[in-house]
Amino acid sequence: MKKENSPTIRAYITVQIRGARPELFLQKCAVKGIFIWDVKKIEDDCCQATIMFKDLGALRKIRRNSLYKVSFVDRKGFPFFLSRLCKKRFLIIGIFIGFLFFFVLSNLLWSVKITGVPKEIEEKIETELEAFGIHPGVWLFSLDTPTDIQRQLLNEVPELLWTGVNLQGTTLHLEAVEKTIVEELPPGEPRNLVATKKGIITNMYVSKGRAMVSVNDYVVPGKVLVSGNLNTEEGENNTDAEGSQRQPIAAEAEVIANTWYEVHVSIPLQYQAEKITGEQKKKHYLRFGDVQLPFWGFRDPDFIYSQEERREQPIHFLKWELPISYVSKEISETEKIEEQRSKEEAIEAGIQQARAQLENELGPEAVILSEKILHEHTEHGKVELVLYLSVEENIVKEELITQGD
Amino acid sequence: MKKWQQRIRSLLMEQFSLPSDVVMEMPRITIIGHLHFYIENHQGLALYTNEELKLKVANGFVCIKGHSFVLKMMLPKEIMLEGTISEVLFLNHEGGKEE
């Protein structure tokens, strides 16, 4: 026995057959191989039956040779549903556009909120962000990762001590902490200035206090350079009255001294470097779980050495993260360069390296005057250098005067 | 001639225990309670109303009576009827009648 469920996935129609003894017409149809079900007799000369839509042509052929009249009552099934839906095309387009709208809007950056800093820095951050291409209205997946933004901001805005970037939905929350310059000592306290390093003083600019050393003096660390105590030595003090003894003040001065450093560097004669040639290729993917579907940039570039940068951005719908994410890959061709350098070049590089190292250590105010090679030695393809660098720098350090009483 | 054929057929049926509906070209009828009537190997529909269904079979007609009949399925040689069945009659050419 053939059990037939109502086949909703296929199109079927209900027809009415009018004429004398309509069941005979149905019988004829059945003999021709038309599958008929749900036959009902409505009136003596009227029968209702359901047939598959594809059998309609065969039914019409049979009707042509007979006196029966066939009319259609109902059309059902998924294909008819589809065609009815197609008639409401604008509704479908509307729904589609609506979804697209939501999708687009939930993937746009709507606002950037900066908290924790005064107005002027806020404005500075905003212009900086603008320069990185972060402003309301950009695609969320074109944004850099929060850590990248953080790093860039810290580099570009020197006033910032720390930034916390957090993407919440369509809002970029940016929390920043301003650098505050903390005075090491309260300005009014009486103090001396002492040397921090040994060296020969080349210049002194004393704005407050009494100089205890003079130019071309050799000083060692801890030596008082400028005293806050304005009273002269005890011997000369006799002429002054006891009452006129002046209170110590906060000394202020800049003492530039010539200091020297010994720096050890070792430079290999052979070196390897990787250089980006400038050839690059971008690939774009949509990732569903483990499957990556490329939709732009299909061909693999034929680079021998390359470096790959991969970025992934989740796609949102309203507040939900969709299981799809957008991945872009940037493949840059690189070149491996292996170079040999002469001893002279190595020494030159060593000096540069030592200078850079020292400058980094001492800060921007120090000036490197000269360098001298104390010792050089080549071993295992490396040049070992001992350099002697003379530097001009401020050697002042503040020290509170502790008063006896 | 026809009688002779019939005799051979019933002989075959008895001797080789072949199913009678195949050998004798007879309809196979399945009735489930008074709800369903299922017939295979009929030879045409003669009459159908809400209260009666008459089908041509090998040597006569089968007539089903009842009410609220619906033909659930119609194939060239099969029919499934749904409704409330009250009688099933075999009308033979010989004029015999059974219930």
Global shape of chain B: elongated
**Quaternary status of these chains?**
heterodimer
Counted beta strands of chain A: 20
Query: Order of strands in the sheet with the most strands of chain A?
Result: 11-9-13-19-18
**Helix proportion of chain B:** 10-25%
Assess the beta-strand content of chain A as a share of residues.
Answer: 35-45%
H-E string of chain B: HHEEEEEEE
Radius of gyration over C-alpha positions of chain A, nearest whole angstrom: 44 Å
Helix content class of chain A? 10-25%
Distance between the termini of chain B: 30 Å
Q: pLDDT below 50 for ≥5 consecutive residues: which ranges of chain A? A: 235-243
Secondary-structure element order of chain A, N to C:
EHEEHEHHEHHEEEEEEEEEEEEHEEE
Q: What is the arithmetic mean of pLDDT of chain A?
A: 81
> Averaged pLDDT of chain B, please?
84
* Name of the CATH architecture of chain B: Sandwich
Structure summary, number of beta strands of chain B: 7
How large is the count of helical segments of chain B?
2
CATH class of chain B: Mainly Beta
Provide the β-strand percentage band of chain B: over 45%
Task: Describe the structure in brief.
With 405 residues, chain A is α+β, with helices and mostly antiparallel strands.
Structure description:
The complex is a heterodimer of chains A (405) and B (99). By secondary structure, chain A is α+β, with helices and mostly antiparallel strands. Chain A has four domains: 12-82, Alpha-Beta Plaits (2-Layer Sandwich), CATH 3.30.70; 111-178, Ubiquitin-like (UB roll) (Roll), CATH 3.10.20; 189-234 and 246-269 and 341-405, no CATH class; 271-338, no CATH class. Chain A is 22% helix and 45% strand. Chain A has helices at residues 22-31, 56-64, 78-87, 89-105, 119-132, 146-156, 343-362, and strands at residues 12-18, 36-43, 46-52, 69-76, 111-115, 160-168, 171-178, 191-195, 199-208, 210-211, 218-219, 224-227, 252-268, 270-288, 291-296, 305-317, 320-340, 367-379, 382-394, 396-400. Chain A has a five-stranded antiparallel sheet. Chain A is elongated. In chain B, strands 1, 2, 3, 4, 5, 6 and 7 form a seven-stranded antiparallel sheet that branches. With 99 residues, chain B is α+β, with helices and mostly antiparallel strands. Chain B has a single domain (25-98), classed as Immunoglobulin-like (Sandwich). The A-B interface holds A 1-2, 4, 21, 23-24, 26-27, 29-33, 35-41, 44, 47, 49 and B 30, 38, 44-45, 47-50, 69-76, 78, 80. Chain B: InterPro entries: Spore_YabP/YqfC, Spore_YqfC. Chain B: It holds the Pfam family YabP.
